[in-house]
Amino acid sequence: MLDLRGNIPPVLTPLHPDGRLDRAAVTRLTAHFLDGGVSGLFVLGSCGEGAMLSARTRAAVIEAYREEVDGRVPVLAGVPEFGTRSAVESAERAMAAGADAVVVMAPQYFPYGGWEPVAEHLHTVASNVGVPTVLYNLPSVTQNPITPAVVAAVGGLPNVIALKDSSADWDAYIALADAAGRHGLAVFQGAERFIARSLARGADGVVAGISNIDPAAVTGLVAAQASGDTVTADRLQRHVDDLCALYGAGFWLGALKAAASLLGLCGPATCEPSPAVDAEALDRIKAVLDGAEQSVG
Question: pTM to 2 decimals?
Answer without folding.
Answer: 0.96
